[in-house]
Amino acid sequence: MRSCRGSHIVGRSVVNDIETSLKIVQEKIVRTCIRSGRSENDVKLIGVTKGVDIKKIQHAVSLGLKDFGENYVQEARGKIEGFNDKKVTWHMIGYIQTNKIKYIPKLFECVHSIDRWELLEKLDTYGKTMKVLFELNLSGETSKHGTETDNLKRMLEKTRSLQHIQPAGLMTMPPLTMVPEESRVIFRRLKDILHMVNKEFSLDMRELSMGMSSDFEVAIEEGATMVRVGGAIFGERT
């Protein structure tokens, strides 16, 4: 089978690999939820499709996956604009360049990577209700995007003046590690911050977007409602 761009071939072995990998991830989510006393319905699996061609995404949809996350607006445009399945929800999970904001409302239903006020202010002008999550850099790594807690509070205060922005939760990325358990402190801190700002600003934000292929089980144990999994489903990026 050829992709719509005609540049990739999705063979039977790749299709089978995606089906097997997705099933393994879903089973891990179920087991972790049971172990944590949570319902599996409380956790949304987002397939991260950076570097993944459209045929693989379509196959994942046929297997029941309905939420997908993209990191780059330009790459996302080539996929989403030609994707006709209205049951699929697209999430923007990567850093947003100011000159790309204009594409966000058309392409995405949810934005996980809000880290500065100008993004919110601009998004509001397009007139589409947008579900947004605020990205926090809790590791302090300069290589990671995200804001700090004080700026989060300033944004939440000013968000009250916007008409089309729906604050839904928080997102973070822990330091890259081979030991998933080392991410636990970051995930726990994000949950604590969510509770704190909800109380301070009388909000009911519920989403915690945290956990990726290497550590999503730990994230679920700490309260993740969205896990962003790419490699564990689609394999290594091309």
Instruction: Label the CATH architecture.
Output: Alpha-Beta Barrel
* Tally of domains: 1
Number of E strands? 8
Proportion of residues in β-strands: 15-25%
**What characteristic shape results from the CA principal axes?**
globular
Which parts are unreliable, with pLDDT below 50 for 5 consecutive residues or more?
1-9
Compressed to H and E, one letter per element, the order equals HEHEHEHEHEHEHEHEH
Report the mean per-residue pLDDT as an integer: 92
What is the CATH level 1 assignment? Alpha Beta
Structural class comes to: alpha/beta
Total helical segments: 9
CATH topology annotation: TIM Barrel
Give the CATH superfamily. Alanine racemase
Biggest β-sheet, characterized? Answer: 8 strands, parallel
Rounded to the nearest angstrom, the radius of gyration is 18 Å
- The side-by-side strand order for the widest beta sheet comes to 7-6-5-4-3-2-1-8
Helix content: 25-40%
Helix-strand layout with pairing:
Blueprint: H1 12-36, E1 44-48, H2 54-62, E2 67-70, H3 73-80, E3 89-92, H4 104-107, E4 110-114, H5 117-124, E5 130-136, H6 149-159, E6 165-172, H7 184-200, E7 207-209, H8 216-221, E8 226-229, H9 231-234
Parallel strand pairs: 1-2, 1-8, 2-3, 3-4, 4-5, 5-6, 6-7
Walk me through what this model shows.
With 238 residues, the protein is an alpha/beta fold. It has helices at residues 12-36, 54-62, 73-80, 104-107, 117-124, 149-159, 184-200, 216-221, 231-234, and strands at 44-48, 67-70, 89-92, 110-114, 130-136, 165-172, 207-209, 226-229. The chain has one domain (12-234): Alanine racemase (TIM Barrel), CATH 3.20.20. It contains nine helices and eight strands. Strands 7-6-5-4-3-2-1-8 form an eight-stranded parallel beta sheet. The radius of gyration is 18 Å and the shape is globular.
